[in-house]
Write a structure and sequence with these properties.
The complex is a heterodimer of chains A (253) and B (305). Chain A is an alpha/beta fold and 253 residues long. Chain A has 6 helices and 13 strands. In chain A, the strands form 2 sheets. A 9-stranded mixed beta sheet of chain A has the order 9-8-7-10-6-1-4-5-11, with helices on both faces. In chain A, a hairpin with a 5-residue loop joins strand 8 and strand 9. In chain A, 47% of the residues are buried. Chain B is elongated and about 70 Å long. Chain B is of the alpha/beta class. In chain B, a hairpin with a 2-residue loop joins strand 8 and strand 9.
Chain lengths: 253, 305
C-alpha cells in the first residue's frame, strides 16, 4: 500500500489579519502557522491505514520554506517521508495550479490512496483534492467522516447536509477528502518528534500552467453596523445584557 | 449572459436550496436554464428549459454519471456560467466538471461585484474579489447568500438527457439518517450554544446552567460535538440543526460560515467572545467582549435572582 497525504500550512484562524501591500491577500508577517485542521484528520487517517495495511506513507506540502514545519509534524504523527514542493508565491496560485503541481509529482509514484483535507481554512475552495484526483485519473470521494477498507474496496461515509450521511463504495486507487470529525488526530509524542528529525524531506521545484482565476483584491468585510459591542467589567456587563434582553426580547419570564 | 443552474434532489425530493442559483441568476440578469437529476414528481417551479435525468436511472448521486449528464446539457445550452450550491453535492460535482472542461471554478460566492465575484476567506475575516477567464465559468454559491424575493413560479420545459453509457467508479449504496434522540432544538425558544472557546468539557456545565436559567436548551458548534463533549443532536449549523429561536446566545463561538448558516435567522443574537473581531459579531445584535468562564456564571447568577 502506497499512501499520499497532501497538507497545507495555514495561519491560526484566530489571528488578526492584515492585508499585504498589493491588497491581494493577507500579509504573512506576525502570523502563527499550523497544519490546516482538515489535513490533520487526513494525516491521522493515512497513518491509521498504514498501521493496518503496511506500506509507505508520503506527506506532501506546497509552499515556502515555512511549510516544512507542517511536514515535520506529519512525519512525527507517523508519515515515512516528506515532499516539499517549493513555491514562495503559492498564495497567488489558484486551485487548478496547485492540483497540477501536486499531480506533476504524484503521477509517476503510483499511489493507491491519497488523502487531503476537504478544504483549507484560509482559502476554502474545496477544489484541490478533486482536481488532483482528476489529473491522476483516480476516483474521488469528498467529505468523508468514516473510512474502512476491505481488500481494494473502500467503504466510506460522506457527510451531507442536516446530519445525513451517504454510504459510498469505491475501488482503489482513490482519493478522499477528509471532513472534521473523521477520527481523532493524534498528538506527536516526543520520541516520535525526535525520530521524525531523521526522516527525509525532499525539496522539489514546481512549475505550473497558467491559472484560470485571478484574485483582483482582498479586503475586510464591510461592518454591517447595528450590532452593539459591550465591553467592561463582568458584573456590569451582565446587568447591561439583562436590561437589553428585557427590552428587546420576550424570553425573560 | 447565459447560465445553467444546477438544482439538487435527494431521495426523490427537490431540495429547497435549488432556488438559490435562480436568485443568483436573477441578480446577474442572466438568461437561465436549469439542470436536475431527480424525480418527475418533484420538479422545480421554473419557467424555462430544464435539462432533466431521472434519478431512478442515473442514481441519486453517481458523480461520474452526473458529470457526464452535465456535459450533455452544457453542449446543448452553451452557457457562460454553470451555477451550483456550495453543498455536499455542489462542491463534489463542480470541480469534477471544472476538470473535465478545463474551466475555472470560483467556490462559495457570496456576492456579485464589479469585475468578479466576492468570496470569503479566513473564516469570513477577509473577502476576495475573484475573476475567471474561460469560455465557461463554474461557480458555487454559499448557502443562503442568494434568495428569491418572491416564490418561484412556472413549469419547466423538460429536455431529457440520456443516461446510457457513463459508468461510475463510485457507488452510493445508501443513506444513514441523522442520529435521533437527545433534543429537538427546533422547538426551543432560547438556545445557548457552546463553541470551541469553552476550552474544556467541564465548562459545558456553565452553558447548560445558563440555558436552564433562560428556560431554554443548550446547543453546540461543530468542534464541541466532534470532540465528543456534546451529542450530535445538539449541533447547530449546516451539518447539524438549523434553528431560529427567539434568543440565541453564542458562547465562545467564532462564527464559522457553517455555524452562521444554522442560526442567523434567530430573532435576537447575543455573542460572548474574547475576540472583538470574531465573525460572529457580523450577525450578533449584541457582542459581549468577555471571558465566558466569568461572564456566563455571572449572568446565570443574576438571572436566578
Amino acid at each position: 500500500m502506497k499512501i499520499l497525504v497532501c497538507i497545507k500550512q495555514v495561519p491560526d484562524l484566530e489571528s488578526r489579519f492584515k492585508l499585504n501591500a498589493a491588497g491581494t491577500w493577507y500579509s504573512e508577517q506576525d502570523l502563527a502557522w499550523r497544519m490546516n485542521e482538515y489535513d490533520e484528520y487526513a494525516v491521522e487517517q493515512a497513518v491509521q491505514l498504514k498501521e493496518a495495511s503496511g506500506g509507505e506513507l508520503v506527506v506532501l506540502s506546497l509552499g515556502p520554506e515555512r511549510v516544512r514545519e507542517a511536514l515535520k509534524k506529519a512525519l512525527a504523527m507517523g508519515a515515512d517521508r516528506g515532499v516539499h514542493l517549493q513555491d514562495d508565491a503559492s498564495f497567488a496560485k489558484d486551485p487548478s495550479q496547485i492540483a497540477a503541481a501536486i499531480a506533476a509529482y504524484a503521477k509517476d509514484e503510483q499511489f493507491d490512496v491519497v488523502f487531503t483535507g476537504l478544504q483549507s481554512q484560509d482559502r476554502g475552495s474545496a477544489q484541490v483534492g478533486v482536481l488532483l484526483a482528476a489529473a491522476l485519473g483516480l476516483n474521488a470521494v469528498t467529505t468523508i467522516v468514516d473510512f474502512s477498507l476491505a481488500g481494494s474496496v473502500a467503504t466510506v461515509k460522506r457527510e451531507l447536509e442536516g446530519g445525513v450521511k451517504a454510504v459510498v463504495e469505491v475501488t482503489l486507487p482513490a482519493l478522499f477528502t477528509c471532513q472534521l470529525g473523521l477520527n481523532t488526530p493524534r498528538y506527536p509524542t516526543l520520541p516520535n518528534i525526535m525520530k521524525a528529525k531523521k526522516k527525509e524531506i525532499a525539496a522539489l521545484p514546481v512549475s505550473v500552467p497558467e491559472g484560470r482565476t485571478t484574485t483582483l483584491k482582498t479586503a475586510y468585510p464591510e461592518k454591517k453596523g447595528g450590532g452593539l459591542v459591550l465591553e467592561g467589567e463582568v458584573g456590569a456587563l451582565a446587568d447591561q445584557l439583562l436590561a437589553l434582553l428585557k427590552e428587546k426580547t420576550a424570553v425573560l419570564r | 449572459m447565459k447560465a445553467l443552474l444546477v438544482a439538487e434532489s435527494r431521495q426523490g425530493e427537490l431540495l429547497a436550496a435549488s432556488y438559490e442559483p435562480l436568485a443568483f441568476a436573477q441578480k446577474l440578469g442572466a438568461q437561465s436554464a436549469m439542470f436536475l437529476v431527480g424525480s418527475r414528481q418533484s420538479l422545480p417551479q421554473f419557467d424555462g428549459p430544464l435539462y432533466f435525468a431521472d434519478a431512478g436511472a442515473a442514481g441519486d448521486y453517481q458523480p461520474d454519471l452526473h458529470k457526464a449528464l452535465l456535459q450533455q446539457a452544457i453542449a446543448k445550452e452553451q452557457p457562460d456560467l454553470v451555477v451550483f450550491c456550495h453543498s455536499s453535492y455542489g462542491w463534489d460535482l463542480a470541480p469534477r466538471l471544472a476538470a473535465a472542461l478545463a474551466a475555472p471554478q470560483i467556490s462559495e460566492v457570496i456576492d456579485i461585484v464589479e469585475g468578479g465575484y466576492l468570496v470569503p476567506a479566513c473564516n469570513a475575516k477577509l473577502r476576495r474579489t475573484v475573476a475567471a477567464k474561460g469560455p465557461v465559468t463554474i461557480v458555487t454559491l454559499q448557502a443562503g447568500a442568494f434568495s428569491l424575493s418572491a416564490p418561484p413560479a412556472g413549469s419547466p420545459q423538460l429536455e431529457e438527457l440520456s443516461v446510457a453509457g457513463a459508468d461510475s467508479g463510485i457507488r452510493l449504496t445508501g443513506y444513514e439518517a441523522a442520529e435521533k434522540g437527545g433534543v429537538d432544538l427546533g422547538k426551543a425558544e432560547v438556545i445557548v450554544s457552546a463553541g470551541r472557546g469553552i476550552g474544556k468539557p467541564e465548562n459545558l456545565a456553565l452553558i447548560e446552567a445558563l440555558a436552564k436559567a433562560l428556560h431554554g436548551e443548550y446547543g453546540a458548534s461543530r468542534p464541541v460535538v466532534d470532540a465528543g463533549w456534546a451529542d450530535h443532536s445538539r449541533q447547530v449549523g449546516s451539518t447539524g440543526q438549523t434553528v431560529a429561536p427567539k434568543l440565541y446566545v453564542a458562547c465562545g463561538i467564532s462564527g464559522a460560515i457553517q455555524h452562521l448558516a444554522g442560526m442567523k435567522k434567530s430573532d435576537y443574537i447575543v455573542a460572548i467572545n474574547t475576540d472583538k473581531e470574531a465573525p460572529i459579531g457580523e450577525v450578533a445584535d449584541v457582542l459581549v467582549v468577555a471571558d465566558l468562564k466569568q461572564f456566563v456564571p455571572a449572568l446565570t447568577a443574576k438571572l436566578a435572582k
